[in-house]
């Protein structure tokens, strides 16, 4: 398969997949799940504005986050850059799609946004070297690694802080062909730019991250690796809207709301 954009969406029925045109406006429906099956066009077409986009992948196994992978972000958090990638796990119940609300529960009072490039694994792999990584990547999407800062500080580890329900928006679709070390990452809060970084500034590049993760875990199709966030992270409260734009992919936008009592 050449470079394509793959969306997961619904028109009110069961989720389906489709190929998105270069303008990000039209979708051609395909059969099956592209991660696991050979796809074919069904002949049905629609437009992005007439469907509800869903998270392009729901990891069946795991999401692996990477902490402090940009020097400027580590500095703004008052932390040192680790010598080796700092990994943490996020449950798949944290995943939501574009446009879906991020729900802030009562147990946190300090929530931050973190715009990131996300990598989706396409083939099972273990103990691979960086030069082999390209063949196991299915594609790329955008993530907002939402974080409860008060829980992050208080717990001493990050399972609750980054794994709360709805705290890992993914979308709007999967781009299968881009240079992961050459994309601009821009995050806006209510239309104002808060993050403006570039993936070339990663401390550990994508190939190194996936190789490193594979030495610890068997990576399975659909696993997602969050590659870290540039400087500019900040607080977000209910009623605000965060958009993360990566020029080669598109825009992931989510409103933030309070949990209903």
Automatic annotation (TrEMBL):
One Gene Ontology MF term: acetylpyruvate hydrolase activity
Domain of life of the native organism: Bacteria
GO annotation (BP), single: carboxylic acid metabolic process
Keywords tagged on the record: Metal-binding
Coiled coil: none
Pfam families assigned: FAA_hydrolase (PF01557), Rv2993c-like_N (PF10370)
PANTHER family noted in UniProt: ACYLPYRUVASE, ACYLPYRUVASE FAHD1, MITOCHONDRIAL
Annotated protein name in UniProt: 2-keto-4-pentenoate hydratase/2-oxohepta-3-ene-1,7-dioic acid hydratase in catechol pathway
């Amino acid at each position: 398969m050449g470079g394509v954009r793959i969306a997961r969406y619904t028109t009110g029925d069961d989720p389906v997949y489709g190929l998105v045109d270069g303008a990000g406006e039209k979708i051609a429906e395909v059969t099956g799940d592209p991660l696991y099956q050979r796809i074919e066009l069904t002949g049905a077409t629609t437009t992005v504005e007439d469907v509800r986009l869903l998270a392009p992948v729901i990891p069946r196994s795991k999401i692996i986050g990477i902490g402090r992978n940009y020097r400027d972000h580590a500095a703004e958090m008052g932390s040192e850059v680790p010598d080796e990638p700092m990994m943490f796990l996020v449950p798949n119940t944290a995943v939501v799609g574009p446009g879906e609300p991020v729900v802030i529960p009562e147990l946190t009072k300090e929530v931050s946004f973190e715009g990131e490039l996300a990598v989706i694994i396409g083939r099972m792999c273990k103990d691979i070297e960086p030069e082999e990584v390209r063949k196991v990547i299915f594609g790329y999407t955008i993530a907002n690694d939402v974080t409860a800062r008060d829980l992050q500080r208080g717990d001493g580890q990050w399972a609750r802080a980054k794994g709360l329900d709805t705290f890992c928006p993914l979308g709007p679709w999967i781009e299968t062909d881009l240079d992961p070390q050459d994309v601009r990452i821009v995050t806006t809060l209510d239309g104002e730019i808060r993050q403006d970084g570039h993936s070339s500034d990663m401390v550990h590049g994508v190939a190194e991250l996936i190789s490193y993760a594979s030495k610890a875990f068997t990576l399975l199709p659909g696993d997602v690796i969050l590659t870290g966030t540039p400087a500019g992270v900040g607080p977000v409260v209910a009623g605000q809207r965060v958009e993360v734009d990566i020029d080669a992919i598109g825009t992931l936008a989510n409103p933030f709301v309070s949990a209903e009592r």
